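fyi for ur records
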Amino acid sequence: MKKRLGILGGMGPMATADLYTKIVELTDAGCDNDHIRVIIDSNTAIPDRTSAILSGGPDPVPEMLSAAGNLISCGAECIIMPCNTAHYFLPELQPHVSVPILDMTKITAERCSVLYPGMKAAILATRGTLASGVYARALDGYGVSYIVPDDEEQSILMHLIYDVVKASEPLDPVKDLWCSLLDGLREKGADLFLLACTELPILSDRLAVPGPFIDPTRELAKAAIEYCGYRVRQQSGD
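which gave:
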């Protein structure tokens, strides 16, 4: 039975577009009619999740629930969120949402354990995601070892996420900064990089620097395709 998919988006708009693009590219489809029916609510009124977690900023949950309700009223039978930090609020959301919300963090942690057994992941994320511990708990649950960026490295990540990707600034000028960040984490023992903010796969894809990388957006897209009763198009590395 095919299911209709809802994307609770707007966190941010480019990450929402990236997720939808990956769903289309990764669906094994021979024509338009072979693709998933997707409903998107790109609700840019959802308050910043990092601010809510770290400094008592406006609660994003009411707007997230509003968007989820819109998706369900339009026929969505499961929901995905292209925002890693938003998964901190998943325990508050799911009891009030009548369809499943797929958990990006658990999906990604399981994939790390399968693709890179015994390897150490560097969690690249917003300060909010790192402080929330959502990926630390997910990785612990699948026996994946990890390191967390220090304060200076977190500041670089916040700059890349907020001042560059979310601000739609050119990416090429920050390539050296991105490479330097990755090299420093390798020196600390990182074997792979978990792109645990949905803006970072955009940066990684377009700058094309060596990884290896785990892209939670891509893993969520594949899980959503399968959950909705469709097949994933096999590509190199899958």
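The chain has two domains: 5-102+218-227, 105-216. thats all i got for now
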